């Protein structure tokens, strides 16, 4: 039986090619954490935790501390296959979702290597590749059109999640109209306000975009404005997607039962594989659609995302958000994930196929 | 990559030691089907499908036909790891739950053997053993007390699901009182009316048993009497468990949202491992308790049940119904499952640990 001997957390920083802006913040550097599970049989599992203070209250420092102070002691000595047991141990600490998720995913990487199977097969093995959605950061209409055109021409991507949520919302409406006009009708566009709009802005913006073929709207406004949120969901002709407002299975259930969203964004960087699979079960049982979201993942986390997305039928019904890493100037892998004709394939190597470039880790780590 | 080359369905009949009676029927013979998945690498996976016509409309004949006519062609050539893909193919045929479940479980048996791991580890690896509940068939109070005492003395079992649902319900009340009196307060008792009671019988029976320490009541009466069911759930002081009235994830969701049950019975012989895991996710997300139920499983199906039960935290929170096979006079295994001190451990061999005794298959099969 393989046993975990230690979990390491290596903070690193890689700049973005240019700032990525959205309604609740802007990132200029990927100040993420590489989580590494070591075992007594020499198998090493990896995952990446992206801190999102404005979403979960975690920082690079808190993630490193959570791994060393809580999660490494809790998991050391454990059989990595005992995921349900390990999840129960991690769950004793409240919050810290991306730290927990990275531990879970790195353990899955160990499991896959231990049995010689790619993890997408172990999780369900649904698809050989998945369509990719690119997230477009906030900018002027022409900047956003230029970026979308470049991404389409470079990667063949034809699905875009457009960041909105600005005040006045007319700025967003103008940008979305410009995108539809420039990209044509065959491109899929959906919106993410990152809780930025207020009051009826979301409904008014959607009305102004009624002929723009918007597929979905994520996090229209403040989730704590409960009645506004319900009214938006009730009246919107496009499905409202819950993301930051439902970060755990129980929150997903509450939000859905409250009629405060129509669909759910599943992010492996937030709920790992073990809990994400349960959320798939929850949503499938309730007949609720899901979208594989992106926590502005680096390349390592992207390999986890595509693994999970390809494994399940539910996560392949819509394009998956897997391309955020292309906005980051570099990565820790020997080979970055590839996007060809707008699609990404899950790694076929045992585990998650995460081949770390040690020189790059040495170069980008910030703890030495 | 392992590929499925054929699926076989072998009908067999093994008599019960004595008839097992419950409100919706009586079984005197285990007329089940052994499902066998063959692969190009020589790995063979097994599972057992128990037809329950009064619950699902399946027969031994229909299961054999479903496997040969639909499911073997649909799965032959497939990679057994592609469970989500295979599930989607099987789902194109409506109904036939135990036939589908057996195919899914036999594929998991292949997967476990292919990677050299017990399936309980692959599914979640929560517990080393689980507490066992025995189901007590209908009988006179003294017959039921004798049987419970014998099971307790033989296997150390201290949790019993007592079949009720007779008219007048006073017969059941008398039997349950006799059991509590004979077995003492430390034994867990819960009830299963198998949809047998009518109107307010369930509430009246529970009132009459208010001091008998009943843990749960399963399927109190006709599930299609929607308002009666809701009223029973609303007023009952013990949780009402949904079983035959919610045989798929979507039905579980509907019944729970309708407030027509408080807990869910998960049966691997009904929803396999793949869908049962999703139902675990659904129930965990909704904060709903589960019990690992028993489709009057033979020994082969019992190995599947204990594998799933031990894998998940949710299914170990209550004793699992795993001992029905002891009422059947023989089995198809080289060694039957063991119950020691009221507990059963999942097989530790790769796959499901199903070592078939070919002589017994030859002896009990009814298709030659």
Shape of chain A: globular
N- to C-terminal distance of chain A: 34 Å
The structure class of chain A reads alpha/beta
Could you tell me the number of beta strands of chain A? 12
Tell me the series of helices and strands of chain A, N- to C-terminal.
EEEHHHHHEHEHEHEHEHEHHEHEEH
Mind summarizing the main beta sheet of chain A? 9 strands, mixed
Poorly predicted runs of chain A are: none
Estimated helix fraction of chain A = 25-40%
Q: Greatest contact pair?
A: A-B, 36 and 36 residues
Mean pLDDT of chain A: 96
Multimeric status of the protein: homodimer
Q: What is the rounded Rg of chain A?
A: 20 Å
| Strand fraction of chain A | 15-25%
Helix count from the secondary structure assignment of chain A: 14
What would you say this structure looks like, in words?
Two copies of one chain form a homodimer. With 368 residues, the first copy, chain A, is an alpha/beta fold. Helices cover 39% and strands 21% of the residues of chain A. Chain A is built from 14 helices and twelve strands. Chain A has helices at residues 53-56, 60-75, 83-90, 97-115, 119-123, 141-155, 170-183, 201-208, 226-235, 249-257, 268-271, 274-286, 299-311, 358-364, and strands spanning 4-22, 25-39, 44-49, 130-136, 159-163, 188-192, 214-218, 240-242, 263-266, 289-292, 320-321, 343-344. In chain A, strands 4, 5, 6, 7, 8, 9, 10, 11 and 12 form a nine-stranded mixed β-sheet that branches. In chain A, helix 9 (226-235) links the parallel strand 7 (214-218) and strand 8 (240-242). In chain A, helix 2 crosses helix 4 (97-115) and helix 6 runs parallel beside helix 7. The radius of gyration of chain A is 20 Å and the shape is globular. Chain A binds chain B through residues 79, 81-85, 87-88, 115-117, 121-122, 124-127, 249-250, 252-253, 257, 274, 277-282, 284-287, 311-313, and chain B through 79, 81-85, 87-88, 115-117, 121-122, 124-127, 249-250, 252-253, 257, 274, 277-282, 284-287, 311-313.
């Amino acid at each position: 039986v393989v046993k975990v001997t230690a979990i390491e957390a290596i903070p690193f920083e890689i700049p973005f090619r240019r700032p990525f802006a959205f309604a609740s913040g802007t990132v200029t550097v990927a100040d993420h954490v590489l989580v590494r599970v070591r075992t007594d049989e020499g198998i090493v599992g990896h995952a990446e935790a992206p801190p999102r203070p404005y979403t979960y209250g975690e920082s690079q420092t808190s993630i490193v501390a959570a791994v060393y102070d809580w999660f490494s002691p809790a998991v050391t000595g454990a059989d990595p296959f005992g995921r349900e047991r390990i999840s129960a141990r991690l769950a004793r600490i409240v919050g810290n979702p991306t730290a927990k998720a990275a531990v879970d995913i790195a353990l899955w990487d160990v499991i896959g290597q231990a049995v010689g199977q790619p993890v997408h097969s172990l999780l369900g093995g649904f698809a050989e590749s998945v369509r990719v959605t690119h997230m477009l950061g906030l900018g002027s209409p022409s900047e956003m059109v230029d970026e979308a055109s470049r991404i389409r021409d470079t990667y063949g991507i034809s699905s875009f999640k457009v960041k909105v949520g600005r005040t006045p919302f007319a700025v967003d409406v103008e940008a979305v109209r410009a995108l539809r006009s420039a990209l044509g009708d065959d491109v899929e566009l959906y919106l993410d306000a990152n809780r930025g709009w207020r009051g009826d802005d979301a409904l008014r913006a959607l009305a102004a975009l009624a002929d723009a073929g918007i597929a979905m709207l994520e996090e229209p406004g403040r989730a704590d404005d409960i009645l506004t949120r319900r009214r938006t969901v009730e009246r919107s002709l496009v499905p409202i997607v819950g993301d930051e407002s439902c970060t755990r299975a129980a929150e997903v259930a509450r939000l859905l039962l409250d009629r405060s969203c129509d669909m759910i964004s599943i992010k492996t960087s937030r709920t790992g594989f073990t809990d994400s699979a349960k959320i798939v079960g929850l949503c499938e049982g309730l007949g609720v659609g899901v979208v594989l979201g992106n926590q502005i993942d680096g390349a390592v986390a992207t390999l986890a995302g595509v693994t999970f997305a390809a494994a399940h039928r539910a996560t392949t019904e819509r394009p998956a958000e897997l391309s955020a890493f292309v906005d980051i100037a570099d990565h820790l892998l020997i080979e970055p994930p590839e996007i060809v004709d707008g699609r990404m394939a899950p790694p076929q190597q045992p585990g998650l196929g995460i081949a770390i470039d040690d020189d790059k880790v040495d170069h980008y780590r910030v703890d030495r």
